[in-house]
Structure formats: structure tokens, C-alpha cells
């Protein structure tokens, strides 16, 4: 589709609150009639982005183009879009009919046209028999339908939906997912939907925008996002995954869990560290070992309603999650097979921690404001000069007591990679360190950080 099909273009959009950058150089276009979902964990900036599109906040920089015009400074009521809020924002002193009619009356739409539109919208959301009902007498799902009808009555070009299903119970939530998708098809207008729920995004969307810490990580169809994640964050956030350290041996051949596998990926180079993603349903498990690529022992088997979730300790002591329609006895030996097209190879974002350090003397560096001992720097490094240093992920020593470390930080994220945990530690100065460890930590744990002198390597 060409630019002429874009209803909204977002260019280099940034926004900060209280000195914290919430959105960082966002670039995105939205097509006419598209159901696009902005997906990410709490604090990723998705609601801020929606508020900027809706006009409830102004960007620090960048532009929002709609139908060829920059609307970045245009107030909400002058934008051709409407919003359905998380808490619906209905008027309790008005009945259902008057809630839906409220915006039309403000716009001085003729009475007969108001009546026509209100009845049409209530019919569309299956609320025709509720015109005279008080808002407080309605269920959460019914209130949501009224909020959607009110937003659509003004005939917006774009409907913004800010986590509108989050207050509903699981059954009603699934029902409303289907109804919203059907409503989108009937109306043919653009829906921009914000959620932290991966299943909602995969079920409802034409396009998904995955966000993390104010940046877009990946844009694609639900199938693309699920089957072809671009990095470990997307792979881990969207559905269940086995994410493993690997080495790309050559085109179409990759090594992980101690075995070589054929794959379909090319262009990574030879003997290059990469990550691989294997979805649990893509590992074939069998009771016989003949014909298997590798073997292992079943450590857990749990019925999940449609499938069994099975954990297997492989012959090289990696743990894999597998989903299969058949149960396997705990302790039994099983064979496994992974097809080339089911192995997704991803570039690593980095292969070690790298940071600037200030030279104190021949054997001491100041890193993140704290003094660390290092190996002799040798000649050419004057006190006060800056050098670039690297520390491997598995060379950072975490302490239970934060006071036992030279630095301290908080476990901000963790990912199990088959035989170890990959942690993101946000240190007290705001920078991040990546740590590989066999120890078990929880998100939010405060830890002390030590690095042995021999493990601090000068790289520049």
C-alpha cells in the first residue's frame, strides 16, 4: 500500500514526563481501515502514544500527520477521532440513550439525525432495548458497549481504544474481542487498540506494534510477530518460547543445546553468536528414540485443557518446554525433533557489556561513578582519560546483600535460556547491565554487583 492509503503518519515523536523520556523517536504509519494494536508491558509508552494521537497531551518533538495535516497541536474535540477509555467515562446521571447522544448534541446535530444515529449505534452494539436504562444498572460489558456506541455516533475516521477490555472477566473479554472485530469489519474505520494482553493482540489485529521502554521493537502481522520475532524481548513477550544461546555455523546450519541443526536462515555469517527461538508446539516429541535428533528425560507433564505442557531435560542438560496433545510419563526417556522451518534465528543485541571508564591509575578505573580494580592498563593510559571496557555477561558476580557489591541494582527483567538465566540489572545510576547466572532471582530483587579485576577488559 502506498502513502495515499495512510490515515495517520507519526514522525520522530518523543515525549518526556518529569525528566523521564517515555517515548523515544517513534516512527509509525497507520493505514485507512486498519485494526492496529499497540502492545507492550506496563510503562512501555503505549498509552502515552495513544494520548498524543488523541490530543490529550502534546509531544515534545515530532509530528502527527492526519490526512496530510500536522495535528500535533490540535485539541481533541477538533480531531476526527474518538476515544473509548479504560474506565469508559460514561455519565451516571444520563440514561443510555442520552450518553450516546451527548457528543451529537454538543455538535448541534439536528434532533432527527441524533435519534437516527443513536438508534443505529445501539443496534450495532446489541443495546437497542436498553435506551432508558441507568448507567449504574448495567454490567461492565454493557457499559463498554455504550461507550463504544457513543464514540462511534460522531462518525470518527479513527477510533482509539485504551485497554477497553481490561475491566471485564475472562469469558466476557473473549466475547467482546469477537464483537469488536466484527464491529470493525462493519464500520470499516480505523481502530487503534492499546493492550498489554498478547492474546488480545494476536486475536484481533491486522497489525501489531510491539513496544518496550518507549521504543518500537517490531511492527508486523500477528503471524509475523509470532513466527518471526526480531529479538528476544518480542519472542519472550509474545506467547511461550524456548529462547536459547546458539552459534550460526554457516548459512542454514546452527548449533544449540549441543547439537547442530539445519535451519532456513542465511546471511548471519560463520561462527557468529546468535539467539534461536523454538515455540513449544514446534518441538516434536516421541516415545521412540529412533529417528530423533536428540533425546531427553521428561521432568514434568501438566494438562492445560487443550494440550499437555511438558518439560524435558535434554541429553546435554538443557531444559525445554514442549506442548503436545499426548501425555508423557515423568521420568521416561523421549526422542525429539525440530524441523528447519521451525527454528527462528535472531541477531543478538550485544554479546557483552560495554561501557566507558575513567582511568584513575594503572590498576583502577571509575565505572558508573564507582572505583573498580583492574589488571594493569600498561602504558598510554593517563589518569583522567577515558577508555572503553567490556565485561562478559557471565563474569558479573551478584550478591544477595546490595551493600556487599561495589555497585547495586535491581533485577528489571529475566529470561530463562535453557541452562541459565539472562538478567537485565538496572543499576542505581540508571544504566543497565546484562548478567548470565545459574542462580535464581526474581524481578524486583535488589542485588550487589562485583566484577573481578581480570574480567574487566580494555577494548578501546
Name the descriptors.
six-stranded mixed beta sheet; alpha+beta; 30 strands; five-stranded antiparallel beta sheet; 8 helices; 460 residues
The CA-CA distance between the termini, in Å, is 46 Å
Main beta sheet: 6 strands, mixed
Q: What Rg is obtained from the alpha carbons, in whole angstroms?
A: 27 Å
Estimate the global geometry from the Cα principal axes: globular
In DSSP terms (H or I, runs of 4 or more residues), the helix count works out at: 8
Mean pLDDT: 92
User: What low-confidence regions span 5 or more consecutive residues with pLDDT below 50?
Assistant: none
* Assembly context of the chains: single chain
Strand order within the widest sheet? 6-7-8-3-9-10
Strand content: 35-45%
Helix content: 10-25%
Structural class: alpha+beta
Number of strands: 30
Amino acid at each position: 500500500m502506498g502513502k495515499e492509503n495512510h490515515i495517520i503518519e507519526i514522525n520522530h515523536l518523543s515525549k518526556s514526563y518529569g525528566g523521564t523520556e517515555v517515548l523515544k523517536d517513534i516512527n509509525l504509519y497507520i493505514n485507512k481501515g486498519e485494526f492496529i494494536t499497540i502492545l507492550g508491558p506496563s510503562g512501555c509508552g503505549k498509552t502515552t502514544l495513544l494520548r498524543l494521537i488523541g490530543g490529550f497531551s502534546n509531544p515534545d518533538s515530532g509530528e502527527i500527520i492526519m490526512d496530510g495535516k500536522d495535528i500535533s497541536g490540535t485539541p481533541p474535540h477538533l480531531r476526527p477521532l474518538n476515544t473509548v477509555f479504560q474506565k469508559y467515562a460514561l455519565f451516571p446521571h444520563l440514561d443510555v440513550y442520552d450518553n450516546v447522544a451527548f457528543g451529537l448534541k454538543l455538535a448541534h446535530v439536528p434532533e432527527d439525525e441524533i435519534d437516527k444515529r443513536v438508534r443505529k449505534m445501539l443496534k450495532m452494539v446489541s443495546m437497542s432495548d436498553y435506551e432508558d436504562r441507568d448507567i449504574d444498572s448495567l454490567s461492565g460489558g454493557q457499559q463498554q458497549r455504550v461507550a463504544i456506541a457513543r464514540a462511534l455516533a460522531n462518525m470518527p475516521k479513527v477510533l482509539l481504544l485504551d485497554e477497553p477490555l481490561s475491566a471485564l472477566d475472562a469469558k466476557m473479554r473473549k466475547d467482546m474481542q469477537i464483537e469488536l472485530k466484527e464491529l470493525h469489519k462493519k464500520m470499516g474505520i480505523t481502530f487503534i487498540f492499546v493492550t498489554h494482553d498478547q492474546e488480545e493482540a494476536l486475536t484481533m489485529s491486522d497489525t501489531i506494534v510491539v513496544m518496550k521502554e518507549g521504543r518500537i521493537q517490531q511492527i508486523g502481522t500477528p503471524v509475523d510477530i509470532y513466527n518471526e520475532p526480531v529479538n528476544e524481548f518480542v519472542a519472550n513477550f509474545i506467547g511461550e518460547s524456548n529462547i536459547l544461546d546458539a552459534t550460526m555455523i554457516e548459512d542454514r546450519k546452527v548449533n544449540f543445546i549441543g547439537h547442530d541443526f539445519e535451519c532456513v536462515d542465511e546471511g548471519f555469517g560463520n561462527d557468529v553468536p546468535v539467539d534461536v527461538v523454538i515455540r513449544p508446539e514446534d518441538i516434536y516429541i516421541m516415545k521412540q528414540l529412533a529417528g530423533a535428533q536428540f533425546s531427553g528425560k521428561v521432568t514434568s507433564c501438566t494438562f492445560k485443557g487443550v494440550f499437555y505442557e511438558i518439560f524435558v531435560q535434554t541429553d546435554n542438560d538443557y531444559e525445554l518446554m514442549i506442548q503436545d496433545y499426548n501425555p508423557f510419563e515423568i521420568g521416561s526417556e523421549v526422542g525429539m525433533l525440530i524441523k528447519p522451518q521451525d527454528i527462528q534465528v535472531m541477531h543478538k543485541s550485544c554479546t557483552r557489556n560495554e561501557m566507558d571508564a575513567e582511568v584513575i591509575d594503572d590498576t583502577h578505573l571509575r565505572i558508573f561513578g564507582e572505583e573498580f580494580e583492574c589488571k594493569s592498563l600498561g602504558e598510554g593510559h593517563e589518569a583522567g582519560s577515558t577508555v572503553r571496557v567490556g565485561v562478559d555477561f557471565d563474569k558479573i558476580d551478584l550478591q544477595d546483600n546490595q551493600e556487599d557489591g561495589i555497585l547495586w541494582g535491581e533485577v528489571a527483567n529475566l529470561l530463562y535460556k535453557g541452562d541459565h538465566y539472562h538478567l537485565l540489572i538496572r543499576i542505581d545510576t540508571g544504566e543497565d547491565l546484562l548478567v548470565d547466572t545459574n542462580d535464581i532471582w526474581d524481578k524486583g530483587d535488589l542485588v550487589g554487583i562485583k566484577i573481578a579485576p581480570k574480567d574487566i577488559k580494555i577494548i578501546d
